[in-house]
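Field log, afternoon session.

UNIT: design team B
ACTIVITY: writing a sequence onto a fixed backbone
BACKBONE:
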């Protein structure tokens, strides 16, 4: 088996530990896995696709520079989304669009993920409807069902209490059901990773 094949089989946390130990290939694999998904998460918070792409690059550059700070006791995705959220908040507070190129593409070979299997019928449209919700409601739905995070992890990412996350999640599901119908909204769930495929649509 090739080194690339072995890297692709490792969990995110294994790759993050290897990246912390100095493996550039492991970090590149993490970036490849999350690049498009992070773009979907950040896009509603920023003014344009270009700003969202830049924020994705900024996030990976920040993580690469601070990989020694990764705590293996936590999921890599929690650390990633927390860092991305903080960068987005900083950009919002400064009142500026994030357009400065970080040069990450020149430092790493991070291709866009190849298209995966098709989503379940109606799921792509479901995420399209979710994007019409408020930013907070979309974010909590994406973290819970797109990334399969537990309430505790979402609370850490968003900087909120577990109770606040549960309330927000309930309101988000209710709003989504009102837009698409209760039966269709039930298709959003952690039982599959198909929501991640919707990120590529």
């Amino acid at each position: 088996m090739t080194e690339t094949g072995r890297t692709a089989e490792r969990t995110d946390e294994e790759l993050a530990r290897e990246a912390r130990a100095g493996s550039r290939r492991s970090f590149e694999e993490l970036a490849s896995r999350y690049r498009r998904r992070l773009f979907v998460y950040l896009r509603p918070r920023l003014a344009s696709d270009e700003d969202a792409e830049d924020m994705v690059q900024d996030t990976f550059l920040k993580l690469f520079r601070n990989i020694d700070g990764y705590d293996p006791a936590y999921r890599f995705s929690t650390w990633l989304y927390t860092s991305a959220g903080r960068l987005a908040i900083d950009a919002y507070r400064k009142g500026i669009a994030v357009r400065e190129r970080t040069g990450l593409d020149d430092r790493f070979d991070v291709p866009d993920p190849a298209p995966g299997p098709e989503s379940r019928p109606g799921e792509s449209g479901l995420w399209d409807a979710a994007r019409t919700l408020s930013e907070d409601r979309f974010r909590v739905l994406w973290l819970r069902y797109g990334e399969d995070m537990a309430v505790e992890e979402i609370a850490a990412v968003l900087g909120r209490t577990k109770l606040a996350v549960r309330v927000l999640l309930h309101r988000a599901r209710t709003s989504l059901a009102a837009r698409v119908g209760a039966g269709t909204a039930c298709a959003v769930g952690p039982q599959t990773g198909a929501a991640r495929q919707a990120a590529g649509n």
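LOG NOTE: The chain has a mean pLDDT of 79.
NEXT ACTIVITY: expression trials, pending approval
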